[in-house]
Amino acid sequence: MRNLLAFFQRFRIFLVFVLLQIVALSTYVRYSEFARLQALSTISGINSSVMSVRNDVVKHFNLEETNKQLAWENAWLKQQLKLSNYQLKKGFVAIDDTLYNQQYKYIPATAINSTFDKRNNYMTIDIGSNHGIKRGWGVFSSKGVVGIVHTVGKRYSLVKTILSKNINIDVMLDKGGAFGLLKWDGENAKYVQISGISNDMRIKKWSTVSTKGGSGIFPRGIPVGKVVEKRFMEGRPLWDIHLLTAVDFRTVQQVYVVKNIHLDELEQLQDAIPADKEEEDL
Amino acid sequence: MNVIVSNSIRFVLLVLVQVLILNNLEVGAGIYPMLYPLFILLLPIEMATVTLMFVSFFFGLTIDAFSNTFGLHASAAVVFAFFRPLVFKLFAPRDGFEMGEMNAMNLLAVRWFIVSYIVLLFIHHTWFFIIEVFKWNEFLLILQKIILSVPISFGLSLLVRTAFMDKSKKER
């Protein structure tokens, strides 16, 4: 017993060091599993109010850019209106549409804090579970894809942006339709990568890339970026494609959260696929 | 000024500077200036290592809470605190240092202080970026981040220290 006490006495400093490291690193690695730890992020009480004040100051610096974006979006939306289209056959306009059912709904939000220079980057938005937000929903701005909702608080949520290690959003080339997964190598916030497109595809520089909509997180066709470079991947028959992101993460402020009304049905269907284990038995 | 009061003021100011200004700088090339280790360095030299580590842990958690890093800064701050007495001992003047010498800031003490701080910053940044990236095949990225960030953090700390903190020392 005395030896044990002497041991603790001798290595006291190192033991405290190890203990604190375990606490710190375990929260760092698995924070999203503990709802309590959300208090330790920008979505909780005092922190979010400090960040809101910061945003109140900073947002004025970008007013011009934000105005331009909103005006651009207004123009785009006006083009979609029936008013700005020439009516080919009068009497066919049906407001109660029976051919098209609404699948996606959008909730506007304001980004109050975001990073772009870390290995994994997060954005805090000012809506949360009070507004019906759930984990895993997509987020985009008027320019293109932003990320996926990662942690939800009552009034705020955290979005994991596409500038993250394993974001894996399924994207496709608008021309040709080849699809791959979105990655980020952590080097430059302006460029993201696509993996999984085989190198017999012909890809032109500046061809556009948008979401595929396969997993039901994003609707099909939200812009992601433009191809600026393609390289051969060593030892694999794949292109290493570099994209210029459509969204400028330094100025993005107005975003939309995507709600897929059919998501439950989609997930139910996909859960019904038997697991790989049974295939091995055959 | 009371030690507790002056350190508390430093705590608040360094957290605010780090969170509201430095976290929002976009320097590029993986540079991430960190000023907050200065707080841990300037804690009283006679403080016991265990207390020092707990204070640093809490300090790091405060910064984590504002920058969505969930314990990354806390971990690095504890590493800084753990190595502080070891490095101080390593670079101490040959005849040892006295408690009051820090305040006197004679030439020898200043040089010793600076060398210790560079070494500690290097340890702190290395730990921080390794845990942040956590992939050995991105070793070059880690190396680049460390080599570019350490001098900038150090220069910034030196600037802040000489510009804002020396005055209060003289008044005392």
What secondary-structure arrangement, pairings included, does this model have?
The complex is a heterodimer of chains A (282) and B (172).
Chain A: H1 2-10, H2 12-30, H3 45-58, H4 63-80, E1 104-114, E2 122-125, E3 138-141, E4 145-152, E5 157-161, E6 170-173, E7 179-183, E8 191-198, E9 208-211, E10 223-232, E11 238-245, E12 254-260, H5 263-271, H6 276-281
Antiparallel strand pairs in A: 1-2, 1-12, 2-5, 3-4, 3-12, 4-5, 6-7, 6-9, 7-8, 8-11, 9-10, 10-11
Chain B: H1 3-21, H2 37-41, H3 49-67, H4 72-91, H5 101-104, H6 107-133, H7 139-171
Helix pairs in contact in B: 1-3, 3-4, 4-6, 6-7
Question: Can you walk me through this structure?
Answer:
The complex is a heterodimer of chains A (282) and B (172). The N and C termini of chain A lie far apart (58 Å). In chain A, the strands form 2 sheets. Chain A has a 6-stranded antiparallel barrel with strand order 1-2-5-4-3-12. A 6-stranded antiparallel barrel of chain A has the order 6-7-8-11-10-9. In chain A, a hairpin with a 5-residue loop joins strand 6 and strand 7. With 282 residues, chain A is of the alpha+beta class. Chain A is built from 6 helices and 12 strands. By secondary structure, chain B is mostly helical. Helix content of chain B is 74%, strand content 0%. Chain B has 7 helices and no strands. Chain B has helices at 3-21, 37-41, 49-67, 72-91, 101-104, 107-133, 139-171. In chain B, helix 3 (49-67) packs antiparallel against helix 4 (72-91). Chain B is globular. The A-B interface holds A 12-13, 16-17, 20-21, 23-28, 31, 37, 39-42, 44, 47, 50-51, 54, 58, 113, 115-119, 122, 124, 158, 165, 185-189, 250 and B 19-20, 23-24, 26-28, 30, 32, 49-50, 53-54, 57, 60-61, 64-72, 74-75, 78-79, 82, 131-135, 138, 141.
